[in-house]
Amino acid sequence: MSMLAAPLHRVSRSTLLRHLAVALIGLVVVILVLESTSTFRNAQFAAMAYLGIAAGGLTVLTGLNGQISLGHGAFMAFGAYSTALLYREAEPVLPVVGVLLVATVVALLVGALVGVAAARLHGPYLAGATLALAVAVPGMAIFFGDSLGGEQGLNVRVPDVPGWFADAVFFLTAHDVTASKYVAYIGWLALIVTFVLLANLSRSRVGRVWRAVRDDEVAAELAGINLGRARVLAFLVSAGCAGLAGAVMAMAVRITAPSGFTLTLSLTLLTAVVLGGLGSLLGALIGAALLTFLPQVVTGVGHDLGLSDVQSAELAPLVYGLVMVLVILLAPAGIVGSLRGWRRSRRETT
């Protein structure tokens, strides 16, 4: 017992080791879930992964730094189109990891340009500027139709499953790795790495600076914090996450077209963050899960009630709206934020 107590105590005291331990547990859960579900569910989990990555980046920007962005779908588009351009040939020039990194860097560079320009904007002005970005970027793909495929978009090559990866998964689970399952693994590995980095960043001095700027700009400036630099850095991190999410999305959907990056996608990401709880990576993941699986659940309920396919499909946006209104009324801090508040109040009363 005493042999285990010392390592556990060391893990509990170290932020990095604690986050790595949670990531390891999460990886085990991901393997168990992906290996016990169908190909269709694997595709849904891949969708949840890329929505979770983008929502995690957005919750850093909005929840920790207090900036509102309505244009993160545009950053996902930059990541997705970078992936489509690099990964559509029979012999891609880069491996999957290289493509993901390039897509992230491209979105980072675009985020740097937008972040510097928007560093002096606040609240609705920043929301308006990012809204314009969300509207303009899909149009760029149409304007440069010869290179970006226009309305039809670009097809994305299905990643080949590396032999060592297939062997490793077969050794652990005795199951073969299909293309859909491999993309889901790519998405969840990317999500775990991203969340570990974001969790450590939020606990570091950088995270404390972001929270100080969010809570009181005047006090933060008097304390010597460079407000513009803090805002631009938060925007950079968030845009990079969106670019990575766009790359995973392109591999999962296997096509990159302007219709996939409309304003609806940006609002969907914001909805995930609000539903789960601002400033919480777990909340971002819960929000992504709701947005991924709720439509199918609602459609199934509609079929059970005797509604037609069209009526059942149209039921999902209505339920989205109702869930959003209920969360705002009953749990304004989001699901995770409200649960933490309830636990805190219960601890104080006992």
UniProtKB/TrEMBL annotation:
UniProt keyword annotation of Cell membrane present: yes
GO cellular component: plasma membrane
Membrane-protein topology: Multi-pass membrane protein
A molecular function (GO) term: branched-chain amino acid transmembrane transporter activity
Pfam families: BPD_transp_2 (PF02653)
Coiled-coil segments: none
TM helices/strands, residue ranges: 16-34, 46-64, 94-119, 125-144, 182-201, 232-253, 265-298, 318-339
Domain of life (superkingdom): Bacteria
Compartment annotation: Cell membrane
UniProt entry keywords in alphabetical sequence: Cell membrane, Membrane, Transmembrane, Transmembrane helix
PANTHER family in the record: HIGH-AFFINITY BRANCHED-CHAIN AMINO ACID TRANSPORT PROTEIN BRAE, HIGH-AFFINITY BRANCHED-CHAIN AMINO ACID TRANSPORT SYSTEM PERMEASE
Record protein name field: Branched-chain amino acid ABC transporter permease
Species: Nocardioides mesophilus
